[in-house]
Each structure stands twice: as structure tokens, then as C-alpha cells.
Amino acid sequence: MTEEHKSLAIVVPCYNEEEALEFSFARLNALRERLVTSKLISSSSKLYFVDDGSADQTWATLSQLADEHDYVCALKLSHNRGHQNALYAGLCATTEDAVVSIDADLQDDPDCIEQMMQHFLEGKDVVYGVREERKKDTAFKRLSAEGYYLMMRKMGVDLVFNHADYRLLSRQALDALLSYPEHNLFLRGLVRELGFASSTVSYKREERVAGESKYPLRKMLSFAWEGISAFSTAPLRAITVLGFFSSLVSISILCWVLLTRVFTDSALPGWASILLPLLFIGSVQLVSLGIIGEYLAKIFDEVKRRPRFHIEKSQNANKELKTR
Ligand code: UDP
Ligand code: MG
């Protein structure tokens, strides 16, 4: 039976998810059983959990699950490297024909995996999970996320609207993805770059099964910037445009000052006309330098070519992974 069916790996990054793991494991495990029984996937299909340097009981739980089930693979990163790196580590560890990545809180409906698998069997290499509705997210999260997708599109970055990191990749697409050497990971953008035959499945986004979001505003903003700076040079172009307009404004003010000096008696215009352009140009320059600095920092990060993660422990999975 194993031979003729395709094997599936489900990869779950976990950061301080001790509360959610019990539910998510039970649900994913039942789903795996169901798909194996219905012969949609082979019995060699596996669940991969990556502990992203958690400070709670996440690793203890994962280690126990891996002891109890030989199809549960557990990896422990040496410290917290962030969602994208943890997911990447999990993807590197898989050997199956198809791989689905999903968050540990199961906000993305795991039952869609069955549909994703069907699309894969029909020949799709990439199947995107798309949130058709996110009523369970806070208004702020929903608006900021949707605004972000629109802004990215305006800046020329091709993203699937309302798709995060819930997707299926075929072995072929995954190998292509793993060949991208960049350190600055924004997987949803990279997958879009790959091409290959793709399709989407939609679902309703639910609330976390347990625990709190591991993406506070600070991490969300930094991830948003990762995405922009990894895929778009529009902010650099914006600096040029801003510079151009501020020079136009400065030139007109200069003309006005000259004309006042030559043709009128009120040759001492107030300090405001000096101070305002001075402040304006000063702030434009600082913002511009900051943006250039951000891109420089990215180059700095890339040229160091440091490993993305170190695997401290692993169970039922290969520990020797490509880490860059
Ligand atoms: N996560 C991770 N490392 C981190 C932060 C988050 O591996 O540094 C995992 C987390 O355990 C979860 C997924 O990334 O499986 C998404 O995080 P979360 O659900 O907290 O984000 P949100 O859905 O609130 O954006
Ligand atoms: Mg979540």
C-alpha cells in the first residue's frame, strides 16, 4: 500500500506552544490517520514539529510525542530564530513527496490539507491556503494585514492576497525553494517567485486553540519590513522622488526670497521662511539616510552568510541539515 501512495509531511513551527500542542497534535494526528486510512497519503507520512527555542515545556512535550509515535519527528533549535527560520528548518528536514506547513495554533483549518493533497495529486506543485474570512482576528490585525498586502502589491511585490504560510509544496517546488540562498527569509514571497503549477484552497481563519499570539506588534512590524526590503526597492525609489520634490520646493522658496529681496522693501522676511525649509529638508535627509541604512544592514546580514539555525536535538529526524 505504501508504495503507490504519495507521502506527506506536515511541518509545524512551535514557539512556547505548550498550551496549544495538546490540541494541535491530537487534531493533526487524527487527520493523518484519516488520510492514511482513506489512502490519500501513504502510511510513511510524517508530522514534523520544530521547537523554536521555547522557554516552556514545548520540547518536553514534543520529545515525548516523538518517543510514542515513530511518525512524529521533533527538532529543537538552539535558540529562538523566528517563525520563518523555524519553518525553514522543518522544511529542510522533510524527505516526503509533498510538504504542508501550518502554525501550531491551528488558526488555519487543518481539514483543508485533504483538499490540498487532492490538488497535489492532480498535478499542482504549490497549493496556497487562502483566508477567505478572518472575522476571528482582531480588527487591527485584519486591517493591518490586508493593508499590507495591498501596499506590497503597489510596490510591485507579487503576493497571494490573504495567504500566509499555510501551503502545500511538492518535492520539486520545495527543492527549488531550498536552493534560494538568501538569509533574509520571507517565504510567502519566495514561493511566489518559484512559479510552478499552483492553485488555492480557501478556509475561514479561526481563533488560536490555546495560548497567546507569538507575534507581538514589534515582531509583526519587523516581519513586514523584512518582506518589503527583501522584495522591493520601492522605498529607495521613493527617496529619489522625495528628494526631487523637496528640491523643487526649495528652489521655489529660493526664487521667492530673491524676488522679495530685489523687488520689495520688506527685505527681511521672517525667520519662518528660513527655518521651515531647513527643518523640512533636514528631516527628509534623515529619513532617506535611515532607509538607505536599512538596505545596507540587509546587505551586511547577507554577506556574513551565517547559518540560519543550529539544531540542538532531534528525534526521528536527521540532525545534519543544510543550515543556510
Ligand atoms: N513561531 C515561531 N517562532 C517565533 C514566533 C512564532 O516558531 O519566534 C510560531 C508559533 O509557534 C506559531 C506560528 O509561528 O506556530 C505563528 O505564530 P502566531 O500564531 O503566534 O502568530 P499570529 O497567528 O498571531 O500571527
Ligand atoms: Mg496564529
Please describe what this structure looks like.
This protein is an alpha/beta fold and about 325 residues long. It is built from ten helices and eight strands. An eight-stranded mixed β-sheet has the order 7-5-6-4-1-2-3-8, with helices on both faces. Helix 2 links the parallel strand 2 and strand 3. The longest helix is centred in the last third of the chain and has 33 residues, at about 270-305. The chain is elongated and about 95 Å long. The chain starts with 7 loop residues before the first strand and ends in a 9-residue tail after the last strand. Bound molecules: uridine-5'-diphosphate (UDP) and magnesium ion (MG). Magnesium ion binds next to loops.
Question: Secondary structure elements and their pairing?
Answer:
Blueprint: E1 8-14, H1 18-37, E2 46-51, H2 58-68, E3 72-77, H3 83-93, E4 98-101, H4 112-121, E5 126-133, H5 139-154, E6 163-170, H6 171-178, H7 187-194, E7 198-204, H8 217-231, H9 234-263, H10 272-304, E8 311-315
Parallel strand pairs: 1-2, 1-4, 2-3, 5-7
Antiparallel strand pairs: 3-8, 4-6, 5-6
Helix pairs in contact: 9-10
Bound molecules: uridine-5'-diphosphate and magnesium ion.
